[in-house]
Amino acid sequence: MEVVRVLHMNGGAGDFSYANNSFLQLKVISMTRPIAEEAISNLYCSTLATTFTIADLGCSSGPNTLTVVSQLIKTVENIRRNLYSNPIEYQVFLNDLPGNDFNAIFKALPSFHESFKKEMGGDLGPCLFTGVPGSFYGRLFPSRSVHFIHSSYSLHWLSKVPEGLEENKRNIYMAETSPASVLKAYYDQFQKDFSLFLRCRAEELVDGGCMVLTLLGRRSEDPTSKECCYIWELLAMALNDMVSQGIIEEEKLDSFNLPKYMPSPTEMSIEIGKEGSFVVNRIQVSKVDWNVYNNNDESNGLRAGGYNVAKYMRAVAEPILVSHFGEAIMDELFIRYGEIIVDRMAREKPEFVNVTISLTKMK
Q1: At 89, which helix (H) or strand (E)?
Q2: What number of other Cβ atoms are within 10 A of residue 80's Cβ?
Q3: Nearest to residue 104, comparing CAs of 72, 70, 74, 66?
Q4: Residues with Cβ < 8 Å from 333, sequence gap 6 or more?
Q5: Domain spans of the chain?
Q6: Which of 82, 171, 175, 314 is the least buried, fewest Cβ under 10 Å from its Cβ?
Q7: Alpha-helical segments (H) within 50-177
């Protein structure tokens, strides 16, 4: 699997598009907003920069992309206006992998500019947007050019599927049945990737620049913990059902593994300390229900909620699944997946765990 080529959210504005199925991500952005606002406020007050550069890594497409940017600019603008400072020029870099639906973002920019200027008033300086396709496991921006980096629900994706997963049969991610060698392979790949990510951002940030990163993670030090693996175990169940019925070849499933890792705060802190360029200002662990729609009052609502979970997982995972299994089975797969999720949500209240970390580059 060539991750750079196949890893992207479903584009467009259809029923299974990321744009129409990213309520979970929006809720997490809202939950972690105070951390980002605190970090960017402190940064601006310490620099009073006249040109302020913001980068959103893993921006995807849809309404969430420009929501994040507008919130960050509003925070800086409120401080600037209270200080009676001159207008700022904002440079905004929107980064994602080349397969991202950048066209949808660019088409949305004119109306965004119009409404944002109307909301903020005539004292708003230029807001200049640039799309930056490429992996954040490599350099993206000029040296010492970026003031603030934001990333939400992106950094848990790895640069590649770890090597040495041949024994992880019938699983698509780490699971309780995964051999120790599989767990080590995933952790080793996370260490390499996160260390490289930190080194690249240390080159690109100005001295004293900040990052606020939110990713799916776990509280437990057990990488097979249910709090991080459960949603993928249920998808593996649906795939295994289709193998048992001859719809998918067993060898096809055995050769599929996800390129992702959901770390603990401790694992992230260890790599940050080893890399040595950043001070950790704050680490927050938060939880969010799988069913962000909150319509599970009775059985009908619960059923709709379970299928909505399957829909937003489809918006995220379908391109990778299609690249390996083909498009023909997707409708059947996600119907089965939805049924499994409905069943589990009827008996328990599963949650995602988020790890948010605020970092400052040392001077």
Answers
A1: strand 89-96
A2: 22
A3: 66
A4: 238, 239, 242, 321, 325
A5: 3-361
A6: 82
A7: 63-82, 102-120
Question: What's the token pair of residue 217?
Answer: 């993670």
Report the C-alpha gap between 147 and 55 in whole angstroms: 8
Query: pLDDT tens-digit profile of 303-315?
Result: 667 777 887 788 8
Q: How far is 319 from 223, CA to CA, in rounded Å?
A: 25
For the segment 96-104, the average pLDDT, to the nearest whole number, is: 85
Hunting for tokens 């020029």 — which residue is that?
89
Kindly provide the b/e burial profile for residues 302-324, where b requires at least 16 CB atoms within 10 angstroms of the residue's own CB: bbbbbbbbbbbbbbbbbbbbebe
Helices (H), 151-256: 180-204, 226-244, 250-254
Signed CA dihedral, 243, 247, 249, 253: sign only: negative
| Distant-in-sequence, close-in-space partners of 350: CB < 8 Å, separation ≥ 6 | 230, 231, 289, 290, 344
Mean pLDDT of 226-247: 85
Is residue 265 within 8 A of residue 285, CB to CB? The reply is yes
- Give the integer Cα–Cα distance in Å for 285 and 218: 8
What is the chain's mean pLDDT, rounded? 85
Assigned token pair, 177: 């049945």
